[in-house]
Amino acid sequence: MDKVLISIVGPTAIGKTRLSILLANYFKTEIISADSRQFFKEMQIGTAAPTAEERAAAPHHFIHHKSIKDNYNVGAFERDALECLDSLFKKHNVVIMVGGSGLYVDAVTKGLDDFPDVDPEIRENLNEILQKEGLKTLQEQLKTLDPKSYENIAIDNPHRVIRALEICIGTDKPYSSFLKNKTNERPFKTITIGLTAERKLIYDRINKRVDLMMDEGLLNEVKALETFKSENALNTVGYKEIFKYLEGDWDLETAVSEIKKNSRHFAKRQLTWFKRNEATLWFDHDTNPEQIMARIEQELS
Fold first, then answer.
1. In what helix (H) or strand (E) does residue 5 lie, and over which residues does it extend?
2. Which pTM value belongs to this model?
3. Partners of 33 in the beta sheet?
4. If both were cysteines, with which of 28, 108, 204, 233 could 68 make a disulfide (CB 3.0 to 4.6 Å apart)?
5. Residue 211: what pLDDT?
6. Which residues are annotated as a binding site?
7. CATH class of the 120-178 domain in this structure
8. Binding site for substrate, residues?
């Protein structure tokens, strides 16, 4: 097998974009994004999507190719990404994939899990609870029924929580018990590079990034999207907190503080997810890129 996908993973604000561009230039290849928030063209600042300058430094795919009004999910991304890889591997022996959305990374490298069908009324009931009692009630229910999923899924995303709960309730088994251990065969080898740092440093980098986002105009970006705040794509860190400010529930200082806190929680869950892959080659965030390239070359040979 002479085709290789280099997958770069790690928590938010760790430096994945920079490394992906360096590797793309080194291997003279292209980049696939597996960051589900960066798919949407209306969301630039709050998702820390690659800038125009960064995208010009190496060809990128799956950046701003969808609208927040489009119904786009992980299954569609798996299909599209595999088709894109098939095309790219006709030109390159190595392709780079980068992103912090663990489920989307796994969809490409391993394939999606198979879940049984459950009574749609269960989801309707859970959505009703969400509207009447809020996400916290559903989170606590999931913590009781499936502590493993509670620790691993995007717990602040109501759609993910409801999906896990409907499987737990509909099958009387934990959602996590349906997560398969076997990997679908792929016509390429995957080398996974993980970037990490001490937790305090990760959190400091996140706090600084959020301040930078505010300086770059995150408030105005979210204001322009207020009409669409019910769209699932906008129910995410950096946007939902600003909506709370715009609705008068919080002052701006509180909203920014909540973005930082929720981003830190997100980073913790990302690390938990990515640490499950024992084959990942982990490097400190400030490792000399040449060392990483040398390690990849060793894997390739």
1. strand 4-9
2. 0.86
3. 98
4. 233
5. 98
6. 10-17
7. mainly alpha
8. 12-17
Within 13 Å of residue 210, how many CA atoms lie on the same side as its CB? Answer: 24
Q: How far apart, in whole angstroms, are the C-alpha atoms of residue 283 and residue 294?
A: 12
Burial string for 181-195 (b: 16+ CB within 10 Å, else e) reads: eeeeebebebbbbbb
Domains of the chain: which residue ranges? 4-112+181-300, 120-178
Dihedral in degrees, nearest 10, Cα atoms 134, 137, 139, 142: -140
**Binding residue positions for ATP:** 10-17
From the list 173, 166, 257, 177, the residue with the least C-alpha distance to 210 is 257
Q: Indicate the fold that domain 4-112+181-300 takes in CATH.
A: Rossmann fold (3.40.50)
Write the DSSP string, 51-87. PHHHHHHS-EESSS-B-TTS---HHHHHHHHHHHHHH
Is residue 11 within 8 Å of residue 271, measured between CB atoms? Answer: yes
Low-confidence ranges of the chain (pLDDT < 70): 1, 180-182
Neighbours of 278 (CB within 10 A): 5
pLDDT digits (tens, 9 = 90+) for 140-169: 999 999 999 998 888 888 888 999 999 999
Name the residue with tokens 């990760």.
202
